[in-house]
């Protein structure tokens, strides 16, 4: 079903402001020049908003969230007044760094479901060039709102129940890994009062266990080595918000290693689920890295430190022969039944 | 049979029972190696219990208008620990790995009352366990998790059992007082064991059996 209601609001930075300006809003028609652009945002939201999020509960643990309440009130009666409350909420968390934005609320129904897409276009400057037969005139334009790939933000919610549903949504926010905490928290944490559907520990554990099992099960030594190297470098991602596929891209894993990793993830959609990388959890799940030689030698070390404490030198590339060396004081000398 | 009961009966074996089994495994995996856990279990809510809850009223009105969405303990899990301090330790681990939409410590309303005690959560079903395809829309988004001590669990089970006896619809004042007395005893035992554990055993950690 197409969009049934479109409301828009100009949202100024209002974080910390004593008196925020009254937000003006308007209802847009469903057949104007802007409609095709907004309709595309609405229709493609499933694809364009890949980050699964859920609302936080109240600080006292109660099952309630102020932003969810506003969205449900808006969907119950989609009008300018109800939508303005969402715009006011956004204004209160908008800093001057995030700047002026144009907020669109796109509401409709999909079968039994209510659906809303909330989209923020950041303000930009532009130049309007008009050509006539005699001359070219140019004009500087302020307050141009563009769907810029780097700063555009949106979120989509779809559910049949206005009473019990709407705890889960899908968002897009390209600034989520910004070095500026304010920017990275602005949309999902501050405005939506939400977090990723999967916690940092759960997402990191899923990745670490899949890497460990993929390396263990693979019969290809090159794949094992690639995965082991990625595990060694993994802790450098501490605090980053990423997906398993992005982890593979970051460390340039080959198709073979990617396939081995994907084979350990039950549901392929989880390869694109975003979580915050938790270095402590990663080290807990894959604490050690071992290399075994055909001579029976096994060398084990802390996974994150392995390349620093074990030196590898290729002595015969054709035969794949290497020399491993490590330095230190002997702390233990064990006889064991199993490897 | 009502449409609601018919629908729940359809979901019970197809969605809820497999989800409860998967969830039990998931919780056991998460808490593997943790000491002083007596048991971890998960179950799908039985159809008669679900229908009874769905028909509940509040102030003369139906409590639930959309029971299949509003009743969040269609899948319920329980973790039973030895001591009170274990409840908080396990709760902290659960909060690291599971997203919650509700978290509460259930205690009687007044300081002079004794009754049910426990730590309750409404958590999102981990995305690893969500069914794919058409079944996804039939699966609950949430499950309930209770974390209790052995004494809290024992009291709740006996109290629940007595509550379902035919004669228990109207309990006498004396019967209610006796039930409160058992809760007070369990509360006291939990406090004593926790103090003893802190005094003598906190640093001597023994892994639990079977998990």
* Backbone structural class of chain A: alpha+beta
Q: Please give the alpha-carbon distance between the first and last residues of chain B.
A: 41 Å
CATH class of chain B: Alpha Beta
The DSSP helix count of chain A reads 11
Helicity level of chain B, as a percent range?
Answer: 40-55%
Rg estimate of chain B, integer Å:
19 Å
Number of DSSP-assigned strands of chain B: 7
**Can you tell me the overall shape of chain B?**
flat
Could you walk me through the main structural features you see in this protein, from its secondary elements to its overall organization?
The complex is a heterodimer of chains A (339) and B (211). By secondary structure, chain A is α+β, with helices and mostly antiparallel strands. Chain A folds into two domains: 3-196, no CATH class; 200-325, no CATH class. Chain A is built from eleven helices and 15 strands. Chain A has helices at 35-43, 45-48, 66-76, 80-93, 181-191, 200-217, 221-233, 244-250, 255-262, 279-285, 306-309, and strands at residues 3-11, 25-27, 51-55, 101-110, 113-131, 136-145, 153-159, 168-173, 194-196, 241-242, 275-276, 288-292, 298-302, 311-316, 321-325. In chain A, strands 1, 2, 3, 4, 5, 6, 7, 8 and 9 form a nine-stranded antiparallel β-sheet that branches. A two-stranded antiparallel sheet of chain A has the order 10-11. A two-stranded antiparallel ribbon of chain A has the order 12-13. In chain A, helix 6 (200-217) runs parallel beside helix 10. The termini of chain A are far apart. The model of chain A has no long low-confidence stretch (mean pLDDT 92). With 211 residues, chain B is α+β, with helices and mostly antiparallel strands. Chain B has a single domain (3-201), classed as Beta Polymerase, domain 2 (2-Layer Sandwich). Helix content of chain B is 46%, strand content 19%. Chain B has six helices and seven strands. Chain B has helices at 3-30, 47-54, 67-70, 84-97, 150-163, 173-201, and strands at residues 37-44, 57-58, 61-62, 75-81, 100-106, 118-124, 142-149. Chain B has a five-stranded mixed β-sheet. Chain B has a two-stranded antiparallel sheet with strand order 2-3. In chain B, a hairpin with a 2-residue loop joins strand 2 and strand 3. Chain B is flat. At the A-B interface, strand 3 and helix 6 of A face strand 5 of B.
């Amino acid at each position: 079903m197409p969009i049934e209601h479109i409301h828009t609001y100009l949202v100024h930075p209002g974080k910390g402001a004593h008196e925020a300006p009254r937000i003006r809003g308007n209802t847009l028609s469903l057949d104007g020049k802007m409609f095709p652009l907004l309709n595309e945002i609405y229709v493609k939201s499933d694809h364009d908003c890949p980050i699964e999020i859920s609302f936080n509960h109240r600080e006292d643990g109660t099952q309630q969230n102020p932003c969810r309440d506003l969205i449900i009130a808006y969907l119950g009666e989609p009008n300018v007044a109800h939508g303005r409350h969402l715009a006011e909420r956004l204004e209160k968390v908008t800093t001057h760094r995030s700047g002026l934005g144009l907020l669109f609320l796109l509401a409709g129904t999909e079968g039994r479901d209510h659906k809303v897409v909330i989209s923020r276009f950041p303000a930009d400057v532009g130049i309007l060039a008009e050509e006539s037969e005699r001359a070219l005139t140019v004009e500087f334009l302020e307050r141009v709102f563009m769907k810029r790939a780097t700063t555009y933000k949106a979120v989509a919610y779809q559910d049949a129940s206005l009473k019990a549903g709407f705890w889960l949504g899908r968002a897009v926010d390209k600034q989520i890994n910004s070095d500026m905490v304010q920017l990275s928290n602005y949309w999902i944490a501050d405005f939506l009062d939400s977090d990723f559907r999967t916690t940092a520990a759960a997402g990191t554990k899923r990745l670490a266990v899949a890497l460990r099992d993929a390396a263990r099960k693979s019969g290809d030594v090159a794949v094992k080595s690639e995965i082991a190297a990625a595990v060694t470098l993994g802790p450098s991602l501490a605090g980053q918000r990423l997906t398993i596929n992005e982890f593979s891209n970051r460390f340039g894993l080959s198709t073979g290693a990617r396939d081995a990793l994907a084979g350990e993830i039950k549901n392929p959609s989880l390869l694109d689920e975003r979580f915050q990388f938790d270095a402590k959890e990663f080290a807990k799940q894959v604490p050690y890295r071992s290399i075994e030689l055909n001579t029976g030698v096994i060398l084990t070390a802390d996974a994150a430190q392995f390349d620093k404490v074990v030196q590898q030198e290729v002595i015969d590339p054709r035969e794949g022969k290497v020399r491993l060396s490590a330095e230190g004081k002997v702390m233990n000398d064990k006889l064991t039944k199993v490897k | 049979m009502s449409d609601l009961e018919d629908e729940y009966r359809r979901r019970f074996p197809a969605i809820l029972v497999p989800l409860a089994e998967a969830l039990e495994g998931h919780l056991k995996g998460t808490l593997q190696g943790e000491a002083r856990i007596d048991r971890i279990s998960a179950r799908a809510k039985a159809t008669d219990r679900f229908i009874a809850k769905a028909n509940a009223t509040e102030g003369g009105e139906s409590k639930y208008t959309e029971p299949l969405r509003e009743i969040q303990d269609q899948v319920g899990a329980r973790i039973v620990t030895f001591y009170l301090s274990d409840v908080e330790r396990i709760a902290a681990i659960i909060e690291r790995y599971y997203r919650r939409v509700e978290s509460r410590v259930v205690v009687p309303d007044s300081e002079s009352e004794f009754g049910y005690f426990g730590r309750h959560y409404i958590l999102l079903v981990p995305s690893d366990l969500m069914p794919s395809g058409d079944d996804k829309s039939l699966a609950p988004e949430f499950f309930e998790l209770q974390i209790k001590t052995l004494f809290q669990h024992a009291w709740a089970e006996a109290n629940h059992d007595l509550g379902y006896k035919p004669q228990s619809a109207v309990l006498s004042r004396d019967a209610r007082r006796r039930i409160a007395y058992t809760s007070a005893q369990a509360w006291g035992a939990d406090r004593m064991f926790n103090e003893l554990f802190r005094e003598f055993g906190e640093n001597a950690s023994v892994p639990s059996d079977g998990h």
